[in-house]
Design goal:
SH3 type barrels, eight-stranded mixed beta sheet, eleven-stranded mixed beta sheet, single chain, elongated, alpha+beta
Length: 1249
């Protein structure tokens, strides 16, 4: 199509005189001048004088005036015919890489050092014609006069009658808009809409007749060369001015070479124009085969087709290579508006035929699920609340919850928002089947013998035996050193006692008794804290006992009563108390009760250290004072004396040893012949290492730079015989006895957990969990259309069912048996990151109806758990969800913990920092991980990356003063990833005004970058790193004239503590990515690039959050940034996904999964009789739970699952006895030594005769 698209073929007058007359007639009827004169242009325009500053990049020469721009070499001006985008991109990448090395220097440069300052060709944002002193490059005139002259010139070259259209050449052009916020600002042509009014300056010519025009308005941009017979749009791009449009003249101005200042805008547009051409050609091709194009086609099929059509074209190859990838989805999404306008202008019927427009443009491929909600809205909740339809007049809709959850959360500040909905009979039957199966996984209920139950008196004390449960008054802070407090709560009885499972009984010569007990915790003594717990008679056995010599025993006068307990019971028990879980008090986690737990750890129950085997890949702390871990493979174990040693094969970091691979991934290793020997205790933990052929694609998790302790090998080190080494491809099958990490490509779909992703957003959380290899998301829900379309754009077709709508509507469907919702028994895993504004520090007022609704959605998540009873689940939210000091009786998180634990789930609380797992971002979040009874419990993810310079942090507060979780500083194999390291490969886009960066579609701003803001950012110093307005002005780096560019005093943005206009510290991590890019904000305004004059781009925010570059985010730039900010950091999600995989399959090695019922028991029973301090022999034990005598419990049936396989977190450390229950005692116990005088040993350790 060598003609302007979209236009009629009507004939037109060809004489310049006729043209002049029609122009005059049009102006005389009241339309006014069609073109401003030169004076109007110059004096009415707003000129950004600061656009003339130079920026240190790209060019090693200085341009001091607009006129000097004309002296730039022809090769520096990118033209339509000679644009080599690939070479330009490669050059930019090389310069960006070299800049990284330079940026690692200190802030101080020696005055004797030679400094090279590179100057770009142009950073102007306005046409140079607006600047004072600018000389027109050709005789200047108005458009009407120029067209008349050029018509005559064209006619002189030959007859023009009968031509469909006439064209003049437009050279040295600049395209710009004139809007209130962006006066006379250059704009790329892909932004042109039919309703827009763009302007151009340039030289209009026919042959040697050249005339210069200024401020010519237009809104049509015809493009030619559509059809797969053409390899490129080439120079078939025209402008049709508003003057010719009004005159209905088919006169067009063909775009030739842009002006120097406009070249950076026009070069990307030419690439986009070719992209649109190829997309439209592809759509037309598939339409002829009766196939509708979907977005997934552009992942690889599109590239295969265009390569087959155009591979012999040099122009096409340059265009294709400039993109740098076979996947064109990101580029299409970034330019979907322009592509749609072109497609619709050519053929509206053909454009609307294909589905991918709905996936990327109109975003109505997935429609809201409203029909069921409307149909069921007449129902009332269990508590008599009004129907959903009746609440539509209120500010927020009701939050659907189950009756169980409603009872637990209705007292909360958002309780009025909750609406209880009963399960239908059919759904209830499905749920009961799931609960029954879960119950069979845990040990059957075992009652005690029921004897000697009562309170007080010598008779009771004498009847107490090992295995009995007794109660005692809690420690009094006035009489003891305890940190425990008896906290009042509306949800707990005032009569508060401590319970203990008797382990040993001691007696003095005078007959006085004392008891060693394993303490049993009430929910109020755990992270359930002061909130409502569903079962008043449930206790948790703990791993906290009095059997240690430095802890006081329970004296007989402290005994209040003995109690009947239903061990391994359920809430339906008829006994006074029931126990079904063990609470690990130092780790603040619950695990399914095991019979082994009922013997004290110090006497019989000891936790084994991790057992390593020959062939294991391990991380080793080679220097005791260092926090760095190195990779080895265990070759052998041996013992010298009493010390166990290990022989290890070193696995080298390839980028550090192979000169040919200086930029290999951080987690790529080299298999070496270097052996070392050291003490076995130096081994920190196992890691995942897998070998691949050099031509294999590295799959997740091995392609994620070490997140999850995952490494890979493609080469091995070989000696050459001359003292040197070389690196050759490795044979993965020849590395015996190396025990490799699991093969992610060999996990059958049927073996994976079926996931439900609630509040799924763009899917970064869900996909990260899937990357672990044990989960496949089958259902996804979000109320925001852009989020659902983004989620589905990154799924394999046919694997996931989206539900666009409220979680309330989906839950209502599920409770009432709707066909669109999964049934209980179909969901194995539930994850969700409920909306955080209800808890976030960035929300000023959390008491509004909207924020109460957001807070109530935590109850909605808990209701899904109640309904589906999944095997595993995860909830994520901001750490402010946990009340650490104030308002602990309104702690939503503790109430959620109470609800989940009350369902019998093994539950753990995790405080995870994004930087600890390789994300270049400061982002701390709380996670609640839960596991169905009897199943293996996932490990808490262990940090793989060091922490930047941040302080320790604790989360939550319990009655003993202990926190729920805390930040640990542990040895790691990697240093944290800095902002510069994460984004250093991205091209320098200066102020990002060109909007599109070829090869990096999302390397663009997500906000309007006004001239005012641009000037403000430019005046923030780049050195020292991390400067902002406050540091610059109050630190004396900004003069008063520059100060006038910023708001006046009195606003938070310009206060001394403000972070507004802040530059990111390149050698540290990004600040927390939020939902909007607001670089002037006082709290989150540290969002400007460390040396480029702009805020961060969408792609840089994506890198901070761990989005993969090839993943698609749909919607406007503003909404794309919002999706990124709403996400969970991908690296954290992957670490959690790997933890779930290890628990579900029982192994992380390349071997068959270990069935849950065959898990290895990590606990061993050993005979261990306590000896007191200073005691020469064993104390007299009147009764003891030992191998010879059980704890008064019938021998259990065989368990399906023991306590844990790799369940116990390697992160946790003993916090000391100050948070354990202990008393200061003066009770004396007589111990008998063979043939010695009786020695009296005080329980506090002092002895006497």
């Amino acid at each position: 199509m060598n003609r302007p698209a979209h236009l009629s073929n009507g004939r037109r007058a060809s004489y310049s005189t006729v043209y002049r007359q029609e122009v005059a007639n049009l102006e005389s009827v009241g339309s006014g001048p069609l073109l401003c004169d030169d004076t109007d242009i110059f004096f009415s325009s707003h000129v950004d004088v600061d656009s003339f500053e130079t920026h240190a990049r790209n060019r090693s020469r200085s341009l001091s005036s607009p006129s000097e721009l004309e002296d730039v070499d022809d090769g520096d001006v990118l033209t339509a015919g000679g644009l080599d985008l690939k070479a330009l991109q490669d050059k930019t990448r090389e310069e960006a890489s070299s800049d990284i090395e330079g940026l690692r220097l200190t802030n101080h440069v020696s005055l004797s050092t030679n400094v090279e300052v590179r100057i770009p060709v142009s950073t102007l944002t306005q046409p140079r014609s607006l600047f004072e002193g600018a000389e027109p490059p050709a005789p200047q005139t108005t458009e009407a006069k120029a067209v008349a002259v050029l018509l005559d010139a064209l006619k002189s070259r030959g007859p023009i009658e009968g031509e469909d259209f006439l064209e003049f050449e437009l050279d040295d052009f600049s395209i710009y808009i004139d809007a209130p916020q962006y006066p006379n600002e250059l704009r790329p042509l892909q932004h042109l809409n039919k309703a827009d009014r763009f302007f151009f300056d340039g030289i209009l010519s026919v042959g040697d007749t050249r005339l210069y025009l200024r401020r010519v308005p237009f809104r049509e941009l015809p493009v030619g060369n559509y059809g797969d017979e053409h390899h490129s749009v080439g120079d078939q791009i025209w402008i049709r001015s508003i003057l010719n449009e009004r005159l209905k003249k088919e006169i067009y101005y063909r775009l030739m070479s842009p002006s120097v200042e406009y070249a950076r805008y026009y070069a990307p547009f030419l690439w986009i124009a070719d992209l649109a051409k190829h997309v439209i050609d592809y759509c037309e091709h598939l339409r002829t085969t009766d196939r509708r194009v979907v977005l997934y086609d552009f992942k690889s099929r599109f590239s295969i087709w265009i390569l087959r059509k155009h591979r012999n074209s040099e122009v096409f190859r340059k265009w294709y290579e400039a993109h740098g990838d076979d996947d064109f989805r990101g580029a299409i999404v970034a330019n979907i508006k322009y592509i749609w306008r072109e497609a619709y202008g050519l053929d509206p019927q053909s454009a609307t035929y294909h589905h991918f427009w709905k996936e990327t443009g109109s975003l109505d491929r997935y429609l809201p699920n409203l029909a069921f909600a409307d149909k069921s809205s007449d129902r009332e909740g269990r508590d008599g609340t009004s129907s959903r339809r009746a609440t539509q007049t209120q500010r927020v809709p009701k939050t659907t919850v189950t009756p169980y959850i409603h009872d637990l959360f209705r007292h909360m500040s958002f309780g009025k928002v909750l609406e209880s909905v009963e399960l239908s009979t059919e759904v209830k039957n499905c749920q009961e089947a799931v609960i029954k199966h879960s119950t069979l996984r845990s040990t059957l209920s075992q009652m005690d013998d029921g004897k000697r139950r009562g309170s007080g008196g010598k008779a009771l004390v004498k009847s107490i035996k090992c295995g009995d449960v007794v109660s005692t008054s809690p420690d009094d802070a006035k009489r003891t050193t305890t940190r425990w407090k008896v906290e009042t709560s509306a949800h707990h009885d005032d009569q508060y006692v401590w319970y203990g499972l008797v382990q040993q009984i001691h007696q003095t010569a005078r007959g006085e008794r004392a008891f060693d007990v394993i303490w049993m915790y009430h929910p109020r003594d755990t992270p359930c804290a002061k909130m409502k717990y569903p079962w008043k008679n449930e206790l948790f056995l703990s791993d906290n006992c009095t059997c240690h010599s430095d802890v006081a025993k329970v004296r007989e006068e402290d005994i209040i009563s003995a109690h009947t307990v239903d061990w391994f019971g359920t809430p339906t028990t008829s006994r006074n108390l029931f126990v079904r879980q063990t609470y690990l008090c130092d780790e603040q986690r619950w695990i399914t009760l095991q019979h082994e737990h009922m013997e004290c750890e110090s006497r019989g129950l000891s936790r084994q250290s991790e057992e390593f085997e020959v062939g294991d890949a391990v991380l080793v702390q080679t220097q005791p004072t260092s926090l760095d871990l190195e990779n080895f493979v265990i070759e052998a174990f041996f013992v010298e004396g009493t010390t166990k040693f290990v022989r290890l094969r070193r696995l080298l970091r390839r980028r550090l040893v192979d000169p040919g691979a200086p930029k290999s991934p951080l987690n790529e290793l080299v298999y070496s012949e270097r052996l070392v020997e050291m003490e076995a205790k130096s081994i920190a933990r196992r890691c995942l290492v897998r070998a691949f052929h050099t031509d294999e694609r590295i799959p997740a998790p091995y392609d994620r730079n070490g997140t999850g302790d995952a490494f890979f090998i493609t080469h091995q080190e070989l000696a050459t015989g001359d003292g040197k080494t070389r690196f050759v491809p490795v044979d993965p099958d020849a590395l015996s006895p190396f025990r490799q990490g699991f093969n992610p490509n060999c996990t059958a779909k049927s073996e994976r957990l079926r996931g439900l992703d609630l509040f799924c957003g763009g899917g970064n959380f869900g996909r990260g969990l899937e990357d672990g290899g044990a989960i496949e998301m089958r259902w996804a829900n979000d109320i925001w259309g852009e989020a659902i379309h983004t989620y589905m754009a990154n799924t394999t077709p046919g694997t996931c069912t989206p539900f666009l709508g409220s979680v309330d509507d989906l839950l209502r469907q599920a409770l009432l048996g709707g066909k669109k919702a999964p049934r209980p028994g179909e969901v194995d895993f539930i994850s969700g990151g409920s909306p955080c504004p209800g808890f976030s520090l960035l929300t000023h007022d959390k008491t509004t109806d909207k924020q109460r609704k957001n807070q109530s959605l935590v109850a909605s998540f808990a209701s899904y758990v109640d309904l589906y009873r999944p095997h595993y689940g995860l909830l994520e939210n901001v750490i402010q969800m946990v009340q650490s000091k104030h308002n602990r009786d309104e702690c939503v998180f503790s109430q959620l913990v109470s609800a989940i634990v009350g369902l019998g789930y093994q539950t753990q609380i995790l405080l995870l920092d994004a930087w600890s797992f390789g994300a270049p971002q400061s982002r701390s979040r709380v996670f609640l991980m839960f596991t169905a009874p009897g199943l293996r419990v996932p490990k808490a993810p262990i940090p793989t990356h060091s922490r930047p310079d941040v302080s320790r942090r604790k989360l939550g507060l319990m009655s003993n003063g202990q926190s729920f979780s805390q930040r640990e500083h542990l040895p790691t194999p990697f240093k944290f990833v800095s902002a510069m390291e994460a984004t250093g490969d991205l091209p320098d886009i200066q102020d990002s005004k060109a909007d599109y960066c070829v090869g990096f579609p999302d390397h663009r701003l997500a906000m309007g970058y006004t001239p005012t803001l641009r000037k403000q950012v430019q005046h923030i110093p780049t050195q020292p790193w991390g400067m902002n307005f406050s540091k610059a002005y109050y630190g004396g780096f900004m003069d008063e004239s520059t100060r006038k560019l910023y708001p006046t005093q009195g606003t938070a943005r310009v206060s001394e503590i403000s972070r507004g206009w802040g530059r990111i510290e390149p050698n540290s991590v990004f600040p927390t990515i939020t939902t909007t890019c607001c670089p002037t904000d006082a709290r989150v305004g540290q969002l400007n690039h460390w040396y480029q004059p702009r805020p961060i781009t969408i792609l840089e925010a994506r890198r901070a959050q761990g989005f993969l570059d090839n993943e698609v985010i749909v919607g406007s730039a503003l909404n794309q940034y919002r999706i990124v900010g709403n996400s969970v950091a991908r690296q954290v999600a992957l670490a959690l996904g790997l933890a779930v995989r290890e628990a579900w399959f029982g192994t992380m090695r390349d071997e068959k999964p270990i069935p849950q019922e065959a898990a290895d028991n990590k606990y061993v029973i050993t005979k261990s009789i306590e000896t007191g301090l200073g005691a020469p022999s064993d104390p007299i034990l009147l009764d003891s739970s030992s191998d010879e005598q059980s704890a008064g419990v019938t021998e259990p049936l065989p368990q399906e699952t023991p306590l844990t396989t790799p369940a116990i977190s390697d992160m946790s450390e003993r916090t000391g006895s100050e948070t354990r229950r202990k008393r200061t005692s003066t009770f004396y116990v007589e111990v008998v030594a063979k043939r010695h005088r009786p020695t009296v040993v005080r329980l506090d350790g002092d002895s006497g005769v």
